[in-house]
Amino acid sequence: MGSLRVEGGHRLSGSVVVSGAKNSALKLMAASLLAQGRTVLANVPRIADVFTMTDVLRHVGASVDFLGDVMAIDVPGHLHSEAPYELVHRMRASVNVLGPLLARQGHARVAMPGGCNIGSRPLDLHEEALGRMGASFHFDHGYLEGVTPGLTGRRIVLEFPSRGATENVLTAATLARGRTVIDNAAREPDIVDLARFLCQMGAKVSGAGTSTIEVEGVEAMMPATYRVPSDPIEAGSLALAALATRGEIELVGARAAELDVFSPSWPAAAPDGGQPPRGWRWASTTGRMPSILPPCPTPGSPPIFRRR
Question: Are 212 and 46 in contact (CB under 8 A)?
Answer without folding.
Answer: no
